[in-house]
Specification:
Blueprint (H helix, E strand, L loop, with lengths): L1 E2 L5 E3 L11 H13 L6 E4 L3 H10 L7 E3 L5 E6 L1 H14 L2 E3 L2 E3 L2 H8 L14 H4 L8 H7 L2 H10 L5 H20 L20 H17 L1 E2 L7 H22 L13 H12 L9 H12 L20 E2 H8 L39 H17 L8 E3 H7 L11 H6 L5 E3 L1 H18 L9 H10 L9 H31 L1
Parallel strand pairs: 2-9, 3-5
Antiparallel strand pairs: 1-2, 4-5, 6-7, 6-8, 10-11
Helix pairs in contact: 3-6, 3-10, 7-8, 8-9, 9-10, 17-19, 18-19
InterPro entries: TNP-like_C, TNP-like_GBD, TNP-like_RNaseH_C, TNP-like_RNaseH_N
Organism: Aphis craccivora (Cowpea aphid)
Protein name: THAP-type domain-containing protein
């Protein structure tokens, strides 16, 4: 697939079955693209065995990720960042790392997950599946990003689930480092300035290069437990860093000031693969003929019902297929034969990462610190939705820090939100926090810690809970949003609990 590095288009350009990419084939593709006016400046691939073999043919290394075509054209090679993150996660949970004789491993994560004892928790996204992570879960980028996240690193530092502080701190720092690197390697929006690492590469170049240098030095010095040399994923990360820096220089030579790094990953191609498979159900493996037919429909823009809501990757660039856009602009309508290749439009992936760890649900009196922080965090999420309508129910942590010098403000600072926020999270006001805690108690009392059933359950629960509270009528819709989200959380928690029990019975 070819795609624009500074414009919104993509286009499949070569299809083969049981064909490995070779140096000569790649050069032919680049030559043909150049001939029709599309200058290739970068190539992307994952770290599969065939692609690593291609690296050797091209004579590229992590120190020098640039190859030269027969015409003398210099092209940067960049490994796929989501694939590198998954490989890093695999080695972390399988062996762990040593860095300057210090340990980095999954023990702090195991201890943290064991503390998740309620359905509402600050680390609700982390489950035992994140650390067992058997196939096909290892193919899902989302599970890796949830381990390597700012939330996970902050929770390790804040809750200190193990006594070995040195191991805890180094593991938390490594997780935060990988989170920041992946944020920088996955930028899709030019206007995102929330942190330097979520901004396009080149906008905050000093801070961004400082991060890349720290990641480079860390990965280069780090060794997988039991290994004495760099592994492929480490060489891939080092190659990515050197290649991205070189690519930015090329872009600036052509008048561009920054790079949207999500343009140099394989998400668009992975998303296409998911579309090709999604029409035939969970285990669909279309024949070559059906694949070509489906691909033709996608390229022409006639793609009814082919969606993949839970694909392994998410392409955030919203690019149009070039041929489909051209046909649309030319007002050419291609008829689609609905009788060809009919199938159920399902997804070939699961959503296990969105569920919750199966532990006993405590009542409010026995809720642990993580659960209370989770309720406050959820209250802040609701407050953000109504920030313009009811500004008194919460404010951002940045605004709160300004108000702290005022004598009469009624906001408290939940320490978890304070640690987690970059400045944009919402801190619920003291009054709103107390309202939500009361709503949470009544929700658990009326539902008896079970999934509520029947029609209009959210409206009925809202009316029942609201009638037991002394709250202004205007806040009823705010409470309804909280209850709706709690019902969704309860359903996910219950589903995960049932799946876990089923797995235990089958063992």
């Amino acid at each position: 697939m070819a795609r624009g590095i500074a414009s919104k288009w993509k286009q499949p350009i070569f299809v083969g079955f049981d064909i490995k990419m070779t140096k000569s084939l790649l050069f032919d593709i680049i030559h043909n693209l150049n001939d029709i006016g599309f200058k290739v400046i970068c190539c992307v691939s994952d770290c599969g065995g065939g692609n690593v073999g291609l690296w050797k043919q091209l004579e590229i290394t992590f120190e020098n990720p640039v190859f030269v075509t027969p015409s003398g054209q210099r092209i940067v090679h960049v490994p796929d960042a989501p694939h590198l993150l998954k490989l890093t996660r695999n080695w972390l949970i399988d062996t762990g790392f040593t860095l300057n004789e210090l340990e980095i491993n999954k023990k702090p994560l195991e201890a943290l997950i064991s503390k998740v004892t309620s359905e509402v928790s600050v680390c609700y996204k982390l489950t035992k599946e994140h650390l067992t992570c058997e196939e096909p879960q290892r193919q899902r980028v989302k599970l890796a990003t949830q381990i390597f996240s700012h939330t996970t690193a902050t929770a390790l530092r804040y809750y200190k689930p193990i006594e070995n502080i040195q191991l805890l701190d180094h593991t938390a720092h490594f997780i935060e480092l990988m989170n920041n690197w992946f944020d920088l390697a996955n930028v899709a929006h030019a206007q995102d300035k929330s942190t330097p690492f979520k901004s396009p590469y080149g906008v905050f170049l000093k801070e961004q290069d400082t991060l890349l240098d720290e990641v480079y030095n860390t990965i280069n010095a780090m060794r997988c437990k039991g290994k004495s040399s760099l592994q492929i994923f480490q060489k891939g990360i080092l190659m990515y860093i050197n290649g991205t820096k070189y690519l930015l220089k090329i872009l600036r030579e052509h008048g561009l000031q920054y790079l949207l790094t999500s343009k140099i990953n394989q998400d668009a191609l992975e998303n296409l693969f998911s579309q090709l498979r999604s029409r035939g159900g969970l285990n669909d493996h279309p024949s070559p003929l059906n694949t070509l037919h489906r691909l033709r429909m996608i390229i022409l823009g006639k793609n009814p019902g082919i969606v993949s809501t839970n694909s392994n990757t998410v392409d955030n660039n919203q690019e149009d297929y070039m041929v489909a856009k051209s046909l649309e602009l030319a007002n050419i309508n291609i008829k689609y034969d609905e009788n060809v290749d009919k199938g159920d439009y399902g997804s070939d992936t699961d959503t296990a990462s969105e569920d919750y760890d199966p532990q006993n649900i405590n009542d409010h009196q026995n809720e642990n610190e993580m659960a209370i922080d989770g309720i406050e965090y959820l209250a802040g999420w609701v407050a953000k939705k109504f920030k313009l309508t009811f500004p008194e129910i919460g404010c951002t942590t940045t605004e709160l820090n300004k108000k702290k010098s005022l004598p009469d403000h009624d906001y408290i600072m939940p320490s978890w939100i304070n640690h987690l926020s970059y400045g944009g999270l919402i801190t619920p006001s003291n009054d709103f926090r107390n309202i939500i805690i009361r709503v949470e108690r009544l929700f658990n009392k009326f539902t008896k810690h079970e999934v509520p059933k029947g029609p209009n359950v959210v409206s009925k629960l809202t009316n029942k809970i609201f009638s037991r509270m002394m709250v202004d009528e205007k806040f009823k819709r705010v409470i309804k949003v909280y209850i709706k989200q709690r019902v969704i959380i309860r359903m996910k928690y219950s589903n995960y609990h049932m799946r876990s029990l089923k797995l235990q019975k089958n063992k």
